[in-house]
# Entry
Amino acid sequence: MSSTWGKVAVAGVYEHPTRYAPEKTAYQIHVESARRVRPKTERYREVFYERLQEDPAEGLRGILEWLGIGRSSEECEEMVRACEFEKLQKTAPGKEMPLPGGKSPKGFFRKGKVGGWRDELPAGDVRVIEHICADLMAECGYEPANPSPGRAPIRVPVHDAIQRVRESIDWQLEKLLYRV
# Structure
């Protein structure tokens, strides 16, 4: 199953944002970039899935109001019902979702539970994510599944070494192409 997790579109081509900061994930890069804008504008708002799930209609109403799009509580309730996870999950891969231009890629929906990634991802992936994102996760109020992770999981230094080799090969190929 191919995935675009951790990738960003750059000039129409998918590229890992970690190419230039391999010690970070796309999640970190995006959140930290957005947070750098926060002191420069009043038009910044963080939305946490966990908090939105506590009262989805009220959360949606608050977001719409912040955007200057007033909607009644009843309208927001209707919008939330139209996009209930169970309904979206039943949408066949590639079929239209109730969002403009939205299509559900195969494997997009998991269980839709707050914190479900801890149970749904392999334990090794959870350890790697928590090792790399620990500081930002704590800053955002997320409790780690592995409170005392200890050393970096072996996959982290192996990934870093492979990334350095890959970048070296890319650099050599680029240098060779410029000579041709």
